[in-house]
Design a protein that fits this description.
The structure holds two protein chains of two kinds. Chain A is mainly α. Helix content of chain A is 68%, strand content 0%. Chain B has two domains: 21-307, no CATH class; 315-521. Classes of the chains: A mainly alpha, B mainly alpha.
C-alpha cells in the first residue's frame, strides 16, 4: 500500500483533522485497521488459517513416527513465518517519524498474530493425534516467531524467513537424531525436546521475548524498495 | 544521405546492442551481484555442515554410503534456502514495483526472468559444488578403494536446479511477502514427507531425490562394494528433476506479453517436453525392483553388463590363516585379523581347516511392505582351496561401531561356527566333539557359551536361531555347561600347552570327527 493510498483511505473524504476532532475510539480503530492493512495482516491470518487447515487434513493421514513428529513443526514454522512477514514496513522513514503509536501497534499486532497462530494450530489439532499437544505448539510457534522477529530486525522483514526456515531443517534433523544418535539435545533446539522440558521452554520464551522487544522498539530493518 | 538516415546514424547506440551475447553476460553479471542467494550462502553452508557433513562423515568411508548421504543431505539442506531465495528473486519486479518500467526494455520478460533465474541457480550450484568438493575430497582421502559416484551427485545437482526453478516460478506468478517463506516450507514439506507413501520397490514415489535405494534399507555399507553401483534410480531421478525444471522455466513464458509468439511457442514446447520427461521418469520408477545386490533395477534403464560382480584384489592379513577382505573394507582388516588370530592359530594346519577367511557379500531380498531381508550363507569351510566366508557387521547396516567392536562381533559370531566346522561339532555330535570345540574356544579366549549370533540377520538356510535375539546359541554343544564332565574335559583340553593340543588334534581329529572318541580318551 502506498503512502498516497493510505492518505486517501485515512482521509475518507472528510475534511483534514475531522477524524481527530471526532470520537477517539473511531480514530483508534481506523489506525489499527490501516496498520493491519499496510502490514498485510489479513493475508497473514489467511495464511495461518491455511496452515491450520493443512495440519488438520494432514493429521487425518496415518504417519509413521518421523512424520508424526515432524509434521506439526513444519506447519508451526509456516505460521510463524507468516507472523514475521507482517513486520515489513511499507512506508519507511515518514511513518517512523510521524507514527508515535507505532511501537505499540507493532507489539500488539505481533503478539495478537502469534496468539492467533497458536490458537488456530491448537484448534486444528484438537481431536487429532497432534504429537506434543498444545504445549508443543505454544513453545514452537512462539520460539520460531521470536527467531524470525530477531532476523527481521537484523536483515529486514523481507529476508526474515531465512533463519526460521533454516532452523526448521535443523530442528527436523534434531528430531531425527532422537532415533539415530548422537542426538542433538541442546535446549536451543527446543522442537526436539519433550513438551514439558523446562530448558527448551525457557529458550523458546527467551527467543520470543527478545524478538518481540526488538521488533517493538526498533521495528524491522528498513531496506529500500523491498516492501510489497 | 537523407535526413532520416542522418538522424538514425546520430542516435547513440546502446552498449552491446550489436553483440547480444555480451549484453546478456552483462545482465547476468548484474543479476549475480544483486542476488539474494549470495546472501543465503552462509545459511546453506551452516545447514550442510550441521545436518549433512557431520552425519555423513560419521559413516564408514565407503563411496556408496557417502554419495547417498550427500544426495539426501543436499536435497534436504538446499530445499528451503534455494527455493526461498529463488521465490524472492522471482517476485522482485512486482515487489519493487518496477514491472511497468522493465516492460519497455529491449529484452522480453521471459529472457529477463531466465537471466535472474540463472544467476540464482549459479549461486546455488556454486554452493553445492563447494559442499560436494569438500565431502568427496575428504572421502577420497579416507576411502581405501573405489571412486566417486557421480550419479547421486548429479541427482543432488538436479534437485538444486529444480528447487530454484520452482521457487522462481511461484515467486514470479504470486509475488508477495509471504511467497518466499511459504513456498520454501511447502517444498520442504513435500520433500520430507514424499517417502511416506513408499511401499515396496515398485513405488513411483522413489523418484523423490531423497531416496537413494530401497526405502527403509537406507545407505547400506554392504551395497555397491561387491557389485557395481546401479544408476537406474538415479537416472530416473535426474530425468524427472530435469524435466520438471525445464517445464517450470517454460511456464514462465506462457503469460501474454512475456515473449514473442515464436518464443512462447518454443517455451510451451519446452514445458510439454519437460512434463513428458518427468512423467516418463515417474512411470519408469514404478517399474523398478530391488535386486539381490540391494539396488533398484529399472528394466528400461538397466544395463545387464553392470550386474556382474566387481573384480578386485582382496587385502589379506599375515595371520597363519589369512583373513581377506574386500579392499573397500580395508580399514577393518587389522582389528578383524587381530581378533581372529588366536583362534586361527589353534586351527591352522589341522585337516579340514580353511586355507583362508574370505569376506562375502550380503544378498538382499525385498520383504513385505518396505522390509528388506539380509540373506547370509551358512558359515562353512568350502571350496578349493578351502575357505571360510564371513560378513562384517558393517555390511549389515549396524549402527556405527569402532573397528574393534566390529572385530569382536565377527569373532563371537563366526568363531564357534569355524571351530564347529573343523571339529565336526553341532547337532548329533559326540560329547568329545563338544568338549574339544569348547576347549578350543576357551583356549582362544572365547568362552563357548558366551558366543552370539548376529541378532537381525536372516540366515539363508534353516539353521536354528537363538531363542532370544543376541542370546546364546542353543544349537551348539548343548551338553557342555559348567560343572558337567564335558566341560571339565574342555577345560583340561584348553589347559594343555598349545603345541601339545595341536599335536593331539593332528593325530586324532579324523577319529574325533568320525565320533569314535569318548570323553575319557581326551587328554
Amino acid at each position: 500500500m502506498t503512502g498516497a493510498r493510505l492518505a486517501r483511505v485515512a482521509g475518507g473524504g472528510a475534511a483534514p483533522g475531522t477524524a481527530h476532532a471526532g470520537a477517539a475510539p473511531v480514530t483508534w480503530v481506523r489506525l489499527v485497521r490501516l496498520y493491519a492493512a499496510g502490514r498485510r495482516v489479513p493475508v497473514a491470518v489467511l495464511a495461518m488459517a491455511a496452515c491450520a487447515a493443512g495440519l488438520r487434513i494432514a493429521l487425518l493421514w496415518h504417519w509413521d513416527a518421523y512424520g508424526a513428529l515432524q509434521l506439526p513443526l513444519i506447519f508451526e514454522t509456516a505460521a510463524a513465518a507468516s507472523v514475521v512477514a507482517t513486520t515489513a514496513d511499507p512506508f519507511g522513514e515518514p511513518e517512523r517519524v510521524a507514527g508515535r503509536w507505532l511501537p505499540f501497534l507493532r507489539l500488539a499486532a505481533t503478539a495478537a498474530l502469534t496468539a492467533a497462530a497458536i490458537a488456530l494450530l491448537v484448534a486444528a489439532g484438537t481431536g487429532g493425534h497432534l504429537a506434543g499437544g498444545t504445549l508443543d505448539v505454544l513453545r514452537n510457534v512462539a520460539g520460531i516467531t521470536g527467531i524470525g522477529l530477531l532476523c527481521a530486525a537484523a536483515l529486514g522483514a523481507g529476508l526474515s524467513w531465512t533463519v526460521p526456515t533454516g532452523y526448521l531443517i535443523v530442528a527436523v534433523y534434531a528430531l531425527y537424531t532422537q532415533w539415530h544418535p548422537p542426538a542433538l539435545s541442546t535446549p536451543w533446539l527446543w522442537p526436539a525436546r519433550p513438551p514439558h522440558d523446562l530448558g527448551g521452554g525457557l529458550c523458546a520464551a527467551l527467543a520470543f521475548a527478545a524478538g518481540l522487544a526488538v521488533i517493538t522498539v526498533r521495528g524491522a530493518r528498513q531496506r529500500a524498495g523491498e516492501a510489497d | 544521405m537523407t535526413a532520416a538516415t542522418r538522424v538514425s546514424s546520430a542516435t547513440p547506440r546502446r552498449p552491446g546492442a550489436d553483440r547480444p551475447g555480451l549484453s546478456t553476460l552483462r545482465l547476468l553479471r548484474l543479476e549475480l551481484r544483486h542476488n539474494a542467494m549470495a546472501w543465503l550462502l552462509p545459511v546453506v553452508f551452516v545447514l550442510f555442515w550441521l545436518v549433512t557433513y557431520r552425519k555423513t562423515m560419521a559413516m564408514p568411508p565407503l563411496w556408496n554410503v557417502r554419495a547417498a548421504g550427500l544426495q539426501v543431505g543436499v536435497a534436504a539442506d538446499f530445499s528451503v534456502p534455494v527455493t526461498g531465495a529463488a521465490a524472492w528473486m522471482g517476485s522482485r519486479e512486482a515487489r519493487r514495483r518496477v514491472t511497468d518500467q522493465v516492460t519497455i526494455t529491449a529484452r522480453s520478460r521471459w529472457a529477463r526472468l531466465l537471466v535472474a533465474w540463472a544467476a540464482t541457480a549459479i549461486w546455488a550450484m556454486l554452493a553445492y559444488l563447494g559442499c560436494l568438493a569438500v565431502l568427496y575430497g575428504v572421502t577420497a582421502h579416507q576411502a581405501t578403494w573405489g571412486g566417486p559416484l557421480w550419479w547421486p551427485a548429479a541427482v543432488a545437482a538436479a534437485s538444486v536446479l529444480v528447487f530454484c526453478a520452482l521457487g522462481f516460478v511461484v515467486g514470479a506468478f504470486l509475488p508477495s511477502r509471504f511467497t518466499a517463506p511459504l513456498v520454501a516450507i511447502a517444498v520442504f514439506f513435500v520433500l520430507a514427507l514424499s517417502t511416506e507413501p513408499i511401499h515396496g520397490g515398485h513405488s513411483v514415489f522413489q523418484v523423490s531425490p531423497i531416496v537413494t535405494g530401497p526405502w527403509d534399507l537406507g545407505a547400506q555399507p554392504g551395497v555397491a562394494t561387491f557389485y557395481p553401483f546401479q544408476p537406474d534410480l538415479s537416472v530416473a531421478q535426474v530425468m524427472f528433476l530435469a524435466g520438471l525444471s525445464v517445464a517450470l522455466l517454460g511456464v514462465l513464458a506462457l503469460p501474454a506479453g512475456s515473449a514473442g509468439r515464436a518464443m512462447r511457442a518454443v517455451a510451451a514446447g519446452c514445458a510439454i517436453a519437460g512434463l513428458l520427461a518427468a512423467g516418463t521418469a515417474v512411470g519408469l520408477t514404478g517399474t523398478g525392483t530391488m535386486d539381490a545386490a540391494g539396488m533398484i533395477d529399472i528394466p528400461a534403464l538397466h544395463d545387464a553388463a553392470t550386474g556382474r560382480p566387481l573384480e578386485f584384489t582382496p587385502v589379506c592379513s599375515r595371520t597363519v590363516i589369512p583373513v581377506c577382505l574386500n579392499p573397500a573394507y580395508a580399514t577393518y582388516l587389522p582389528a578383524t585379523a587381530s581378533a581372529l588370530a588366536p583362534l586361527l592359530s589353534e586351527l591352522a594346519g589341522l585337516p579340514g581347516a580353511p586355507a583362508r577367511i574370505d569376506q562375502e557379500p550380503v544378498a538382499y531380498k525385498q520383504g513385505a511392505d518396505n522390509s528388506v531381508a539380509f540373506l547370509l550363507h551358512e558359515p562353512a569351510v568350502s571350496g578349493t582351496p578351502p575357505a571360510f566366508g564371513l560378513v562384517l557387521p558393517v555390511q549389515l547396516g549396524y549402527p556405527a561401531m569402532t573397528a574393534a567392536q566390529q572385530a569382536n562381533q565377527v569373532v563371537t559370531t563366526y568363531g564357534p561356527d569355524l571351530v564347529a566346522d573343523v571339529i565336526g561339532d553341532g547337532h548329533g555330535a559326540t560329547q568329545a566333539q563338544n568338549a574339544v570345540a569348547t576347549g578350543l574356544m576357551i583356549a582362544a579366549g572365547l568362552r563357548r557359551l558366551d558366543t552370539y549370533y548376529v541378532p537381525s540377520a536372516q540366515p539363508a538356510s534353516a539353521r536354528p536361531l537363538p531363542a532370544t535375539p543376541g542370546g546364546p546359541d542353543p544349537g551348539r554343544s548343548p551338553g557342555v555347561a559348567p560343572g558337567t564332565p564335558a566341560y571339565d574335559a574342555a577345560e583340561r583340553f584348553a589347559a594343555l600347552p598349545p603345541a601339545a593340543r595341536h599335536a593331539w588334534l593332528v593325530r586324532n581329529l579324523a577319529a574325533l570327527r568320525a565320533g569314535r572318541l569318548t570323553l575319557a580318551q581326551l587328554p
